[in-house]
Design a protein that fits this description.
Length: 511
């Protein structure tokens, strides 16, 4: 097609005409800034609209605003990504400026508002919490009242009175008492390191000159740190004073246990339940899922311990220094089985079975002062089984072994055989006018020494306990129990066994 050229007027100098590149860049930048401003305004508007969509906004209005937002985002992308026209410099005269058109590249597919907001949220880093922001504090208090309604409240010198190694408020002229006042401080120092600290402010001590007991002293119960060796926290090493993994009931927290006290037979292995040392715990993922399910259901579990444990400790007991060069070794295994596959009657039921073993040498305290120069063998093996109450349950533990025990004939401490444990039945009622409650019945038996007291006196325990735990509100638990006790007092200077009937109450408040 022929083009009509307009002649330049005579006397006019002809200069080569260059494209105005700077102007194009300025105009493109201006459009980009304008589009970016519009996009930000639209984005803010969309976020605001999402919060007020319920206020007289129709679906059509929202759709129109979303479409406008899409168009604005597309304009922004086209302005920012489209190339600016470039031409080669002109070196020869031309008759007239010729417009050179640049074909913009196709704009990318616009993102939706939801996708854009998601990208913005993902791009915003979460603030890193300091270690002190990951610390939690909690605790619980147990207040008790015991009353001997019949039996050997008192006895002549040399004869056993009705007493218990677990509760010093069982006796003559007793009233209210604080059995435990615990405060727990725990948290994660890093993703792989956590700590746990628990003192008890309800410990009693005796005035050595007159034998008077003093209440409300503090004692360190737990002080340990966990180091996790894998990201899933299945394998951990625990360093410090912590519970010894022997006995399912021993490892279960007193705040979580249905019965008022632990059994003599199982607790005699580790009175106080704790010692100073190092222990490794491991829990397979499948087993942890079962325990998580039970915890969500509100079951009383045995605590934050693994399915398998192997540890070494001083072996002298809680808050006591080592007295020999040996260490106590302990191993434990427990395994929960989900019984859902056995049929509808077992739906949700879990049976947990396991065992533990201890090998140790211990030097008991002497009534005359100090500790024994001789170390005595302290070796045990125990088994446990728990059918969690859904709604009916069963629990049993037993252990056998040998340990230090005072011998009346030789008037000295020797190594003797021991055995003991308990069987327990319980039920769980999830709701009632008084709140959830759990009735239980337990029978316990023990024959053997009690190594935590001076001269390791012999215990002979037969006891039946019938009780019920109420939980009117989540922070409050009330337990009322009847106990028929036949016990030898934990004092080698007293002989025989005392009998009696007790009414026992405990109010626990969690915080």
């Amino acid at each position: 097609m022929n083009q009509i050229r307009q002649p330049f007027p005579r006397g006019t100098s002809v200069e080569p005409q260059l494209p105005d590149l700077d102007g194009q860049r300025d105009r493109a930048a201006t459009r980009a800034r304008r589009a970016s401003r519009h996009a930000r305004i639209a984005l803010v508007g969309s976020i605001a609209l999402s919060g007020t969509a319920a206020q007289a906004q129709s679906v059509q209005d929202l759709q129109r605003q979303i479409d406008e937002l899409k168009a604005t985002i597309a304009e922004l992308k086209a302005a920012q990504n489209g190339p600016i026209a470039q031409t080669a410099p002109v070196t020869a005269p031309i008759a007239a400026p010729v417009a050179v058109a640049a074909t913009p590249a196709p704009a990318p597919k616009p993102a939706t508002a939801v996708a854009l907001l998601t990208q913005l949220a993902a791009a915003t880093p979460e603030p890193k919490r300091a270690w002190y922001d990951r610390i939690a504090i909690r605790g619980y208090t147990q207040m008790r009242f015991n009353e001997i309604v019949s039996g050997d409240r008192t006895a002549p010198d040399g004869q056993s009175r009705l007493r218990s190694v677990h509760d010093g408020s069982i006796g003559d002229n007793t009233g209210f008492s604080l059995r435990r006042v615990r405060l727990v401080l725990q948290g994660d120092l890093t993703d792989r390191v956590s700590f746990y600290l628990q003192p008890d402010f309800a410990v009693n001590v005796s005035n050595q000159s007159v034998g008077e007991r003093r209440e409300g002293f503090a004692q360190l119960r737990d002080a340990y740190v966990d180091t996790f060796l894998d990201a899933d926290r299945r394998f951990r090493l625990r360093f410090g004073q912590s519970k010894v993994p022997f006995g399912w009931e021993n490892m279960q927290s007193s705040s979580n246990r249905i019965t008022i006290d632990r059994s003599d037979g199982i607790n005699s292995a580790v009175p106080g339940e704790r010692d100073l040392g190092i222990v490794a715990y491991y829990t397979p993922t499948g087993m942890q899922r079962i325990w998580d399910r039970l915890e969500e259901d509100g079951q009383k579990l045995f605590g934050n311990y693994g399915a398998f444990a192997l540890g070494v400790y001083n072996g002298q007991g809680i808050s006591r220094a080592e007295t020999n060069d040996g260490v106590m070794t302990v191993a434990m295994a427990t395994w929960p089985f989900a019984l859902d596959g056995l049929g509808g009657a077992f739906s949700g039921q879990v049976l947990e079975v396991g065992g533990a073993a201890i090998r140790n040498r211990v030097q008991p305290e002497l009534r005359s002062g100090g500790v024994s120069d001789t170390s005595f063998a302290d070796e045990r093996f125990g088994v446990h089984a728990i059918l969690y109450p859904q709604p009916f349950g069963f629990q049993a533990e037993w252990n056998w072994g040998r340990g230090p025990e005072y011998d009346d004939a030789s008037q000295s401490i020797t190594t003797k055989r021991l055995n003991g444990g308990y069987v327990q039945a319980m039920a769980r009622v999830r709701s009632s006018p008084l709140g959830p409650f759990m009735p239980y019945a337990r029978r316990q038996y023990y024959r053997g020494g009690w190594k935590a007291l001076p001269n390791a006196p012999r215990l002979e325990t037969d006891e039946f306990e019938l009780g019920i735990e109420f939980q009117p509100t989540p922070p409050i638990e009330l337990t009322v129990a009847y106990a028929r006790m036949t016990r030898r007092e934990a004092d080698e200077r007293r002989e025989g066994r005392a009998e009696g009937d007790l009414i026992r109450t405990q109010l626990q408040f969690n915080y």
